[in-house]
Specification:
Layout (H helix, E strand, L loop, with lengths): L3 E5 L3 H4 E11 L5 H6 L3 E2 L4 E5 L2 E5 L2 E2 L16 E4 L2 H14 L2 E9 L5 E10 L2 H23 L1
Antiparallel strand pairs: 1-8, 2-7, 2-9, 3-6, 4-5, 5-7, 8-9
Length: 150
């Protein structure tokens, strides 16, 4: 059994330069896991923040499960991310000193069936960086096409 992706952040590589990635668990309540099994989640606008000695995920949207009882959680509530203490200390140092951001890359079920979040430490791209990436992509595409025809 392999990883089953729930949702991915497609804007991540366009808007940010990924420096480091951490695999972390997420604290869920109620029927949120059942909702995730049917892939009703969105992390496009989500971000992570270190508060005290804990890391939280904000703006991640998990649609409430339809067949749940009257007890339903708020869709965009903040959720605690589960990391080792050494990883949290490393994140505290990097986010506070260098002005980096925590953005979720993807949410998935691991081999044991637990929900995991790939949390990335990123640096924002400027407009000219994005243009450089587009130019580099076009050049490699042209070179591949030229090599194929020769």
């Amino acid at each position: 059994m392999e990883e089953k992706a729930i949702c991915t952040n497609r804007k991540l590589f366009r808007d940010y330069e990924v420096l480091d990635t951490f695999e972390c668990g997420i604290e869920l309540k109620g029927s949120e896991v059942k909702s995730l099994r049917s892939a009703k989640a969105n992390i496009d606008d989500a971000f992570g923040r270190v508060e005290g000695e804990e890391v939280f995920l904000f703006n991640s949207h998990i649609t409430p499960y339809d067949k749940a009882s009257y007890f339903k959680e708020e869709a965009t509530r903040s959720r605690r991310l589960l990391l080792h203490r050494s990883q949290i200390k490393k994140l505290i140092g990097q986010v506070s000193q260098r002005g980096l951001t925590l953005v979720p890359m993807k949410m998935y079920f691991n081999k044991r069936g637990f929900v995991k979040v790939a949390l990335s430490l990123v640096k924002g791209k400027k407009i000219y960086d994005r243009r450089e990436d587009i130019k580099r992509r076009e050049e490699t595409r042209i070179l591949k096409r030229y090599a194929k025809n020769k």
